[in-house]
Amino acid sequence: MTLPHIIAISGASGSGKSLFTETLCDELRQIDTDVLVLCEDHYYRDQTHLEMSEREKTNYDHPNAFEHELLAQHLRDLKAGKSIQYPHYCFKTHTRLQKLTEVTAHRVVVVEGILLLASPELMPLFDLKVYMDTPLDICLLRRIQRDLTERGRTLDSVAKQYEKTVKPMYHQFIQPCRHKANIVVTQGGKNRPALEVIKAHIRNTSKL
Ligand SMILES: Nc1ncnc2c1ncn2[C@@H]1O[C@H](COP(=O)(O)OP(=O)(O)O)[C@@H](O)[C@H]1O
Ligand SMILES: O=c1ccn([C@@H]2O[C@H](COP(=O)(O)O)[C@@H](O)[C@H]2O)c(=O)[nH]1
C-alpha cells in the first residue's frame, strides 16, 4: 500500500482548525479520497489520579499536557500500514474515557491540534504543515461560546484559564511555530481558496 500522506493542521484554540479539517475531509471524501482524521486532543494525558480541583489547575496549553510520544507512535504505525487504537478524552472530567477506536491505515491522514508543530518528535512525520492564523481576540470569542455550551465551563473559568495559560502558552509555543508551516491560512475554517489549494496539493502528491 502507498504510504499515507500526513497533514498537520495547527493553530490557536478557536482558530478554526476543526471546521477547516472537517470541511477539507468531507470534500476529499466526496472525490473518493480515503482520509482519516486524528485529533491531538484525544492524546491529552489522563488526569484520573488527581482530584478535580487539581485537574482544574493543570496547564492544558503546554506541550507536556499531551502524550505526543503515543501520537508519534500511531503516526509511524499508520505510515507502516498498520492499524492503531486511538484514545478518547473528556474535557468535562479531564480524563481519558474507557474507550479506544481502532482505525486502519488510510491514504491521507489529517491531524489537527494546537501544539503539533511544537513537537520535535511529530514534526518529521508531517508531509504538509498548515497553520491557522486567526487573531487571538476572535479565537477567544469563539472559545467562550464553545466552552460554555460544549465543555461545561463558566465565563469566569474561561477568563481565568485564558489569562493564566491559554494566552501565555500561545505566545510561548503556538505562534512561534507559524514559520514552520508550509501554508498559513487566514480567515479561519471558511477560507475557500485555502481549502482548494490544499485539496489540489493532496491530489497531486498522494498518488490517489
Ligand atoms: N471563518 C469562520 N467564520 C465564522 N465562524 C468560524 C470560522 N472558522 C471557524 N468558525 C467557528 O468558530 C468556532 C471555533 O472553530 P473550531 O474550528 O472549532 O476551532 P478550533 O478547532 O481551532 O478550536 C466554531 O464554532 C466554528 O464553526
Ligand atoms: O482538560 C482540558 C484539556 C484541554 N483544554 C483546552 O482545550 C484547548 C485545546 O482544544 P481546541 O479544541 O484546540 O480548542 C486548549 O487550549 C486547552 O486549554 C481544557 O480546557 N481542558
Automatic annotation (TrEMBL):
Protein name according to UniProt: Uridine kinase
UniProt cross-references to CDD domains, sorted A to Z: UMPK
Membrane-crossing segments per the record: none
Leader sequence residues: none
EC annotation from Swiss-Prot or TrEMBL: 2.7.1.48
Gene Ontology MF terms in the entry: ATP binding; uridine kinase activity
Compartment list: Cytoplasm
Pfam families (alphabetical): PRK (PF00485)
Domain of life according to the entry: Bacteria
Record family assignment: Belongs to the uridine kinase family.
UniProt organism field: Neptunicella marina
InterPro entries: P-loop_NTPase, PRK/URK, Uridine_kinase-like
